[in-house]
Fold:
Amino acid sequence: MDFLRRLWGMARFWPDPGMGLRTGSNSAVLAMFFILLFTVIGSFLVALGFDLDRLDLWLARQTWIGIIGELLFRALLAFIMLICVVVFLGFLFDRGNPERPGWGMLLGAAIVAWFVGATLFAPLEALAG
Structure:
């Protein structure tokens, strides 16, 4: 964790990744952090003897990586949908609790559920091809 903390400090010190992001913004700091992190990972792989071009071609041919990524993303969306359902049920049935979800939280959960549901229940195009 200390390594990642130091990398984050370096990204905050030099927050200009040059990708059209405003210098010093949170997006620029996050982009710079990922650039530094993947540079370290790539350097480590090169030091171990991997050719990054061949590794990239190998990853592009592997459709199972896309399938696993698609399924993990769908699992995350299903978890978010479950949270929205719990908020909705808490609004309906937890009337005695003074800290139950209110109208604003119900509206927010409905909006999030709408967008999550549109992606969650879309056809699995990555698995079909």
Summary: Residues 11 and 30 are 7 Å apart (CA to CA). The mean pLDDT is 82. The first helix runs from residue 2 to 13. The chain is about 75% helix and 0% strand.
